[in-house]
Design brief:
This protein has 296 residues and is of the alpha/beta class. It is 30% helix and 17% strand. The chain contains eight helices and eleven strands. Helix 3 links the parallel strand 4 and strand 5. Helix 4 crosses helix 5 and helix 7 crosses helix 8.
Length: 296
């Protein structure tokens, strides 16, 4: 009888790529291995280079311009990127059906980067908000309440599509309950459980810092806000519970966002889970960096 390991027992996905192996052996240093560059890819025009007003110096790139932008940075030592698809062409619905269309910006960007810059570790942001008609990270019932099960099922489907496109890392940023387990289980069922890593936005707090990012990704909510699923500011108890949850469900890496305002949470999470790489994701108006803080 064959044994199917639960998602939380799969370890190979944590070091299936050379960059991930280095992350798991390096200390907390400022090296190219410890940085991941967010890249916004739009389908507005294949040759687009669109300045983002709220993030001076940062652009959205059409599919023909992505590797032109990245190639000089790779020569300078860039090792990994995090892809954010900005879909301005597809009709959006409540289930974010366009998120994993074969011709969508994220799917195409993953494939192009893996083909032309195969040495890069390619992570893909997974969330419904940039592709949904509501601008929220969840699917909603007719009564306006979140449907967590439908949401995590859809997030897992998108994750599988990105894995098939060639993503090395899946990065769910939604904060729905149970999405790590759902994603890992579906990846494992389709043969990607031990080869595709999961970087969970484990402690993501409500914050005004996200304004420029939402402008860049076109992901602002069309009604209300995200207080029902992003953590209340200062709730360190909930942050630890969320990271515990993601660890139990099989995540390979953890994240705290926004980092600058929650250095105490970073310290507490690292103390609680010293064996997991921890990403500190900082969003400011004039810069956007994701720093991987690894074992120390």
């Amino acid at each position: 009888m064959s044994f199917i390991p639960p998602a939380s027992h799969i370890i190979h996905s944590a070091f299936g790529h050379e960059v991930l192996r280095e992350i798991n052996t390096l200390g907390a240093k400022l090296t190219p291995q410890n940085f991941m560059l967010p890249v916004f890819v739009t389908n507005s025009n294949p040759d687009a280079v669109e300045p983002i007003v709220s993030l001076p110096g940062v652009n959205r790139y059409g599919i023909n311009k992505v590797t032109d932008f990245l190639s000089p940075l790779v020569q300078k030592g860039l090792r990994s990127v995090l892809i954010f698809g900005v879909d301005v062409s597809s009709v959006k619905d409540e289930c974010a059906s366009s998120a994993d269309l074969p011709g969508g910006p994220t799917m195409r960007a993953i494939a192009v980067i893996k083909q032309e810059l195969p040495q890069l570790l390619v992570a893909a942001d997974v969330c419904l908000c940039p592709f949904s008609s509501t601008g929220h990270c969840s699917v909603f019932n007719d009564d306006g309440k979140m449907n967590n099960q439908l949401s995590i099922n859809r997030l897992a489907e998108i994750s599988l599509s990105y894995a098939k496109a060639g993503a090395d890392v899946i990065a769910p940023s939604d904060m729905m309950d149970g999405r790590i387990g759902s994603i890992k289980t579906l990846l494992t069922k389709h043969g990607y459980g031990s080869s595709v890593s999961v970087l969970s936005y484990s402690a993501k707090f409500c914050s005004a810092f996200y304004g420029p990012f939402r402008d860049a990704a076109g992901s602002a909510p069309k009604f209300g806000d995200r207080r029902n699923y992003q953590l209340p500011p200062g709730s360190d108890n909930l942050a630890i519970r969320c990271t515990d949850r993601d660890v139990n469900e099989g995540t390979d890496m953890l994240m705290v966002k926004p980092a600058g305002a929650y250095l105490d949470i970073i310290s507490k999470v690292k103390t609680k889970h010293p064996n997991y790489p921890l990403a500190a994701y900082q969003v400011y108006i004039y810069c956007m960096l994701l720093i991987l803080i690894v074992r120390y």
